[in-house]
Amino acid sequence: MSSPLPVFAAVVVAAGSGSRAGGPKQWRLLAGRPVIRWSVEALLRAGAAEVVVVVPSGAEPEAAAALEGLSGWRTVAGGASRAASVRNGLAVLGGPGDRPVLVHDAARPLLSGAVIDRCVRALDEADGALPALPVADSLRRESAGLVAGAVDRDGLWRAQTPQAFRLETLIDAWAGWPAGEPATDEAAVVQRAGGRVRIVEGDPRLMKLTFPEDFAMAEALIPRRTRTGSGFDVHRWGPGDAVWLCGIEIPHDQTLIGHSDADAGLHALTDAILGAMGDGDIGDHFPPTDPQWKGASSDRFLLHAVERLHARGGRLVNVDVTLICERPKVKPHRQAMRERLAGLLGLPPEAVSVKATTTEGLGFTGRGEGLAAQAIATVELPDA
Ligand SMILES: Nc1ccn([C@@H]2O[C@H](COP(=O)(O)OP(=O)(O)OP(=O)(O)O)[C@@H](O)[C@H]2O)c(=O)n1
Ligand SMILES: C[C@](O)(CO)[C@H](O)COP(=O)(O)O
């Protein structure tokens, strides 16, 4: 087992305007969580004693909303460039001069504890640490749209963050940096000041969100676990001339009795989705004693469960509903039910199954006293 990490602090720069991404990206949701929250959580989880989050001037309320519920962080206003923002962050960091400090881009949300560990430990034998990945593609120089030559990729690395240094090393290196000269990152500044910056193994998931399409790529890189939930519901038959099943109104010589529209298919499905998330059941979210749900269309129960799933960064994979009744005949309505459910759930129809069975005249469904529905939902939830 490795020794505990020394006490370290972090500066997370999030004061950019995201011009290449089409707008500020630090507050955008990635798998249900604001981009900035991913890194701050990862740093706090790894044991950071203090995290200074550098945000655009006046954006403190956005930061407070994005980081709600976390403690151990504070904000400072950023500057006109990334370098200026880093320096503003360092200026408010406390602690002894030899304290390890990680400087990290909020735009690299998928930060693992393993990378943090490697960066901090590298300071045992270097003045700085830079996580990086070797360049895998061959490189070309271009001129006027034509290949002008090949560039030897040997010894070339793709630099990432967090970059680690001791506080005084970083402050001294910045102090010696020529005023007005643009700085790529802290590794460049410390190296120019004569420091030895160790390359440590980076992580492909630490990609920087730079362009709009990067968000979909980052979503795809998030590890997810698959969960399954089941739901079951029964409603009693009573006088009426139509019945709601799986979001479709079917003319019938009876109706299902319930506090809401009594759509047992949607109720079972709502419970299956809540069950897959471990998020209680439909009665917890919509108590039958609450008059506001009297006669309610059950679409909203289902949509509520789906919204809760999305808020956790989860996504539906497929659903399967079985209706158990002697009448009405479900088969003529199955395709319409699948399409309706697919529309409500945002799934392709092939990921939605609706089935029906009788109980051969047996039991309460067989005697025509009530209709039962059962459902299964499979979801994927972010691992971290
Ligand atoms: N004045 C700035 C500029 C950038 N950053 C931060 O530096 C990181 C890397 O910068 P980049 O990806 O270039 O972000 P933006 O500056 O927001 O994007 P763009 O260059 O497309 O405008 C981001 O976390 C960004 O918020 C910062 O804190 N202050
Ligand atoms: C610091 C950095 O993330 C290292 O790769 C990068 O240089 C910052 O982003 P930019 O796109 O170069 O502004």
UniProtKB/TrEMBL annotation:
Entry protein name: Bifunctional enzyme IspD/IspF
PROSITE patterns reported in the protein's UniProt record: ISPD, ISPF
Family membership noted in the UniProt record: Belongs to the IspD/TarI cytidylyltransferase family. IspD subfamily. In the C-terminal section; belongs to the IspF family.
Chain's gene name: ispDF
Binding residues for 4-CDP-2-C-methyl-D-erythritol 2-phosphate: D233, V234, H235, H259, S260, D281, I282, G283, T357, T358, T359, E360, F364, R367
Site label Transition state stabilizer, positions: R20, K25, H259, T358
Pathway annotation from the record: Isoprenoid biosynthesis; isopentenyl diphosphate biosynthesis via DXP pathway; isopentenyl diphosphate from 1-deoxy-D-xylulose 5-phosphate: step 4/6; Isoprenoid biosynthesis; isopentenyl diphosphate biosynthesis via DXP pathway; isopentenyl diphosphate from 1-deoxy-D-xylulose 5-phosphate: step 2/6
Lineage of source species: Bacteria, Pseudomonadati, Pseudomonadota, Alphaproteobacteria, Caulobacterales
Source organism: Brevundimonas viscosa
Region named 2-C-methyl-D-erythritol 2,4-cyclodiphosphate synthase: 227-384
E.C. code: 2.7.7.60, 4.6.1.12
Cofactors named for this entry: a divalent metal cation
Amino-acid positions noted as binding a divalent metal cation in the UniProt annotation, renumbered to this chain: D233, H235, H267
2-C-methyl-D-erythritol 2,4-cyclodiphosphate synthase domain segment(s): 227-379
Superkingdom, natural source: Bacteria
InterPro entries: IspD, IspD/F, IspD/TarI, ISPD_synthase_CS, MECDP_synthase, MECDP_synthase_CS, MECDP_synthase_sf, Nucleotide-diphossugar_trans
